[in-house]
Design a protein that fits this description.
With 67 residues, this protein is of the alpha+beta class. Helices cover 18% and strands 37% of the residues. It contains one helix and three strands; from the N terminus they run E-H-E-E.
Length: 67
Amino acid sequence: MLVLDRSFGSEDELRAHLRERLNARIHGVSVQKIDFVNDSTTVEVRYQQLAGPSASVPTAELIGERA
């Protein structure tokens, strides 16, 4: 589960953001919550890490992960 520090207008925009931030192939995204007041999106993401250097995800943006 990830909490991102912005809201997204479309799933395509969200997937592109996740692909870049995680440096990964995104297999599935399930939006759990969108908070337009606090400008955040909570998502469950299924992904496969790509080869090469990993993109950094600031801890302020990556709140938590659960299995």
